[in-house]
Amino acid sequence: MRLSPAATVALDGCFAREFPELAVPWQAETPPDPHLLVLNEPLATELGMDPEWLRSPEGLGLLVGTAVADDATPVAQAYAGHQFGNYVPVLGDGRALLLGELGAESRRDLALKGSGRTPFARGGDGLAVVGPMLREYLASEAMHALGIPTTRSLAVVATGRDVQRDTVLPGAVLARVAASHLRVGSFQLAAQQARAAGDLGLLRRLADHAVTRHYPQAAQGDNRYVALFEAVVDAQASLVARWMLIGFVHGVMNTDNMTISGETIDYGPCAFMEAYDPATVFSSIDYAGRYAYGNQPRIAQWNLARFAEALLPLFADDQAQAVTLATDALEGFLPRYQAFWSAGMAAKFGLSEGGAATSVVDDALVLLRENAVDFTSFFRALSAAGRDDSASARAMFAAPAEFDEWLGRWQALGPDPDAMDRVNPVYIPRNHLVEQALTAATGGDLASVQRLLDVIGEPYRERVGLESYAAPAPSDFGAYRTFCGT
């Protein structure tokens, strides 16, 4: 069904219009019985949408992609990408659609996930199910509340369609909002097409689009394309440092899952680390630990190297000069990441950067790993120790004497417990609580999902009666594994 532009949300088809080489016009499949599971009313209001209208049949039509304005052009985006280090020349949105861009000044993409098969489905059914779509909603909204750049979840709509997976599960569509869906993989495909055609036109247009949309300051420099690359390097260094500071494990850091905007995207097998261990892996398909918690900075730099390779022809006509420019910019990633990490970690410990703080932080992380201490709980217990109540923190260590020695060194540096509480969350989406909520929601009970959303929506404010939401998983929860269901 098509609606007149006045009857629905205005969606500009900028990407569809400007990059037909990277987009296939497509329509969402019509779900048999759509009904709203969860709506992000604050986000809807921020985007200029009426939440009550979104709850109407017409609004639901927009949220599943079957009722869009006449001048909208939904598309499946095309991109390439390295998946677990292996290059795939054509990936693309197999079960997603970009409906269009919202807003005239601060543009935001509105996209759907699970809206049906597209030409990029590669044998898949194009559908999604309730659990994984709600997982992305929970994870992305938790990241937003934690202050970490991320795509946002506008709504999850049940389709009324049964979907065959290992068992039959209820289908759903996620409506996602992003600064854009430009990925490293978008540029890899554009560069691939440029090489095949012997024409840099598409690659140059895509880079210019990224500059205009995300990094207009790059246009002021001597070489806008090198400046674009440097801006993305900086954004990703900051983003990954923020992941590391709260124990987030993305799980599938393929190049098609790295945004140019610097937002976290695609929450398939993600999870939050509990016991501190750099080798932490949750994804059931990451057999070698490529995307382990401690590997994330290195993988981000590897992905950025692939981005540099795609942009190389734009850096300079002379290939040797282009390689030098790319290498110099790429080598800035680890120092930038380390600067973000060091500043953030010093803040978590309530300390000023540098000097003795560096060794105190490093030694603490060794103790956390050796004692399998819960990463999130530790910092709140430590701030209590900064107020002369060290019992909870000491109880986390099998050898309290070692902790006591370290604690004395830390206290001698004059930590600020109040500042610590402003940057260390009480609540994260604990993996066992997420699983409990998703199991209940798959069975039709959304109360646990809504309660969890309420809790993680204010992660830094400790509240009486929510102690179970702050606690790590019970011992009988076992080793946690995630699956790329989104």
UniProtKB/TrEMBL annotation:
**Origin: domain of life:** Bacteria
Cofactor(s) required, per the database record: Mg(2+); Mn(2+)
Q: Which UniProt keywords apply?
A: ATP-binding, Magnesium, Manganese, Metal-binding, Nucleotide-binding, Nucleotidyltransferase, Transferase
Describe the reaction catalysed, as an equation: L-threonyl-[protein] + ATP = 3-O-(5'-adenylyl)-L-threonyl-[protein] + diphosphate; L-tyrosyl-[protein] + ATP = O-(5'-adenylyl)-L-tyrosyl-[protein] + diphosphate; L-seryl-[protein] + ATP = 3-O-(5'-adenylyl)-L-seryl-[protein] + diphosphate; L-tyrosyl-[protein] + UTP = O-(5'-uridylyl)-L-tyrosyl-[protein] + diphosphate
What's its top-level EC category? transferase
| A family per Pfam | SelO
Annotated Gene Ontology MF terms?
AMPylase activity; ATP binding; magnesium ion binding; manganese ion binding
Q: Where does Mg(2+) bind?
A: 257, 266
The reply to whether rRNA processing figures as a keyword in the UniProt entry is: no
Q: Which InterPro entries match?
A: SelO (IPR003846)
In this chain, ATP is annotated as bound at: 92, 94-95, 113, 125-126, 176, 183, 266
Q: Which residues form the active site?
A: 256
Q: What is its EC number?
A: 2.7.7.-, 2.7.7.108
| Job description of the protein | Nucleotidyltransferase involved in the post-translational modification of proteins. It can catalyze the addition of adenosine monophosphate (AMP) or uridine monophosphate (UMP) to a protein, resulting in modifications known as AMPylation and UMPylation.
Q: Which NCBIfam families match?
A: PRK00029.1
Q: What is this protein called?
A: Protein nucleotidyltransferase YdiU
Q: What's the source species for this entry?
A: Mycobacterium talmoniae
Designated gene of the protein: ydiU
